[in-house]
Amino acid sequence: MSDFKKRFLRYIKRAGAGSMLISIILHVFIIGGATVYVVSSVHPQRKALFKGDDSAAASVQHPVKMSNTQPNLDTLTRRISVDTPESAVSLPDLPTNTDSGISSPTLDASLNGAGTGNGSLKGPLMPIFGFKEAQTGGTLVGNFYDFKQLRTGKPNPDYVPDVKKGSTLDGGAGHLAGVEVKNFVDKNFSRSSLYKFFVAPDPLYTTQVFVPSMNADAAPAAFNVDKVAKGKAWMVLYRGKVSPPVTGTYRFVGGADDMLVVRMDGRIVLDGGIHPVTKVEPDAPRYKYPPFSGSGVFPKGFMIGKSMQLRAGQFYDINIAISEAPGGVFNAFILFEQEGVKYDTTSDGSPILPIFRVAPGNTEPSNAAPPFMPNGPIWKALPAPKD
Questions:
Q1: Secondary structure (DSSP) of 37-55
Q2: For the chain, which end, N or C, has fewer CB atoms within 10 Å of the first or last residue's CB respectively?
Q3: Domain containing residue 151
Q4: Is residue 121's pLDDT more than 80?
């Protein structure tokens, strides 16, 4: 026995403790020392078990809230609708999933931009005159002007109400629109020349100009001013900055009933209305397309614009003026072609061209519009100007 233990026992005996107490104290020391040794030398591995494990062994329970990564089935199967300025366009119901997984539904080919292709919905169905909100990625901003009234809402003293004689209209809205659009174009698209006229309070934002033949009253209705502006002697001006898909030589091709003028990078590159505003001559013979509703006003076909040398990544100012003169039917279309690209053709050899647009979108083929190339190249645009 060590000197330390002997001295300890003598101390315990002097304190009056018996052999039983001594034995207990010795065992406590021994057990305590063994416990310290085991704990310090062995560190057990603890396995974290999520709720639902039936193990009865000692475990650490961590309540975990799982995120809802599965979309709501009601959202997937309800009808898709697009709020357009004219009306809500409802698309067909998506097919109901019958299996336990969530799959990407295949849409009918008619939902695709041109009604062909794989049927995938690549963009929103394009409202005729534009969206109520600017679109992500850049758009053209459009303002509606009514030449028949002043900015104050008072009648324009230069407007002479239409006087019908036989089957023609003398003067009136048609004459007024022709004069004012020409004045605007002659002044290099300066909006100061439009300041005196009534302008719709809210602009629209478009990614293309492709308006099938329709009643001219649709324009003021789209801009929500149909209660104060009639569908004649009006003009819509679209503005923005655009860049071509790739560097190359381009030409706009278009037609409109009544007026359509495009100014790009400071020069007139297309005057495609049935009532020419400028003396700009086309670079090539016009393109004729199969008859469609309203195409009777294009006996010579669509105008081919001036050639433009454009560089991808560089943005160019663009102004597009479309106008209705006497009222009635209105349409406006802007397509484009790139030099060196081979396009499919119509029966008479005219190329089927892509729509000029600055964002993917769905434009359904119509018997009130010319044919166009499905899923054509997309131009780029900067965010719509706010001035």
A1: HHHHH--PPPPEE-TT---
A2: C
A3: 140-381
A4: no
